[in-house]
Design goal:
By secondary structure, the protein is mainly alpha-helical. It has 11 helices and 3 strands. Strand 2 and strand 3 form a beta hairpin. The radius of gyration is 19 Å and the shape is globular.
């Protein structure tokens, strides 16, 4: 693993802790490292896009950062580095496929960044982030990845030859001025996800996000 990230740990216990899930019940877990790594990731990516794209507005900077640090982006990193092989889980979590869950994979990436920060300092962690996200950074900064989840999901299924994508409102609650919409996403006649929100658009986006992240966790093909 250290070869794949091009970093060698001085303190092996810090590296090991970055992969221990709380379900393993080993007296320690990656959660604190994840907290630290999340901060390092945000700062590194913020600085990078700020310096490399002086033409971007605050809104464009925010969207670009979100595209690079969201769960789907981190899952891609975890899969590229085969980090699931190193995750230590409790029996129940392991039996339920925890090593492939998007949330756990994304958390481990952040924990690994935090571990490198503690072991080698900010510059080492910063360099790791830039290496791990190199391809995504180029794509985002060229304007190729700032799509919403509905667009991403549509592109994903179009590549598979599926065009039958529908968002159906199956329930509405609340008074006219404060409604909540419930939407289900149906692809090829099969219900894939549900979402809710104060507007139909928000509900559709949430359903699309759930389906898209699930698709990312099940296949290597990613937008």
């Amino acid at each position: 693993m250290q070869e794949s990230i091009d970093y060698t740990f001085e303190n092996e216990s810090i590296r090991a802790r970055a992969f221990i899930h709380s379900s393993a019940d080993m007296g320690e877990s990656y959660e604190r490292l994840e907290f630290l790594g999340d901060a390092v990731l945000e700062l590194t990516v913020s600085e990078l896009i700020f310096l490399r794209r002086p033409d971007f507005t605050e809104g464009e900077l925010t969207k670009s950062r979100a595209a690079l640090v969201n769960e789907a982006a981190l899952v891609r990193v975890a899969k590229a580095l085969n980090l699931s092989e190193y995750i230590v889980l409790g029996r129940g979590e392991q039996n339920s496929g925890g090593a492939q869950k998007p949330s756990i994979l994304a958390d481990v990436v952040e924990a690994l960044i935090g571990a490198v920060y503690l072991d080698g300092g900010f510059e080492s962690a910063q360099a790791l982030v830039e290496r791990m996200l190199a391809k995504s950074i180029e794509k985002v900064l060229s304007g190729g990845a700032n799509h919403d989840y509905k667009t991403r999901l549509q592109e994903h299924f179009h590549k598979k030859g599926t065009n039958d994508i529908k968002y159906l409102v199956y329930k509405e609650e609340g008074p006219p001025h404060n409604k909540v919409f419930y939407v289900k996403l149906v692809v090829g006649g099969n219900e894939l996800a549900k979402g809710e929100g104060r507007s139909k658009k928000t509900a559709e986006q949430r359903a699309a996000k759930e389906a898209y992240l699930s698709a990312v966790s099940e296949a290597d093909e990613v937008d």
